[in-house]
Description:
Shape: elongated
Helix content: 25-40%
Strand content: 15-25%
CATH class of the largest domain: Mainly Alpha
Strand order of the largest sheet: 1-2-3-5-4
Amino acid sequence: MPIDQCEAIVLRTYPFADQDKIAVLFSRDKGLLRGVAKGARKFGNRFGSSLEPMSLVKVIYYEKERRDLITISGCDLLESFFDIQKDLRTAFTLSYFAELVEETALSRSADEVLYRLVLSVLRCLADGGNLPFLTGYFEAWFLRAAGLLPDFTRCKECRKPLAGPSWLSPKRDGAYCADCTPSKKDEIAPETAPFLDWVRKNPPSESCPAPPPDASLAAIRRTLQTLIIYHLEKEPKTLRCLKDNT
């Protein structure tokens, strides 16, 4: 059984057997991994705090053929984001990010864009970045990386620039102007296209420009969440929890 290692972000852990844990990891080179950390529930175990959610770690592991779970033999903590999760809103938000990654990332298949997105947003939050703005940033890039972000600059039907009110299409694959829309259920905030254009061109950072007003940002995020729910075919459990507790 060859020993291997990789850099990864811990998405979550849960109990397994009497004294072990299953760790769900999002690795830079190998995508989604699930592994058994033997003895991780024992007092004074060798893993320490390295398996806390959203920790950046170097994982040492081995695997057997025809088994989905790897066996984690060691885990070195590279960067901790434990302190920012003392804030309840931040903790719920990071759980939401983790669920989106776990739902969509492929097992044993690298996704460098999504990996860098998670890590850059974590670091910006640790530097004191604006939580609602960075959540919208994450949602926008999550959809973009998955190829699920429609064009909000032109009407899907007549292809004219969207200069006035617009609405999401019923299939969530584009935006319609007032003359073409078949439904006025999901209105799109006029600030959406400029926000998405900024997100596309800029990394998150402490020095990013002031976020849109709270009402505009909330409207933008409602549109992004509508798209996420539609394409996942369900509302993420952590998103419901986030709405109920913040």
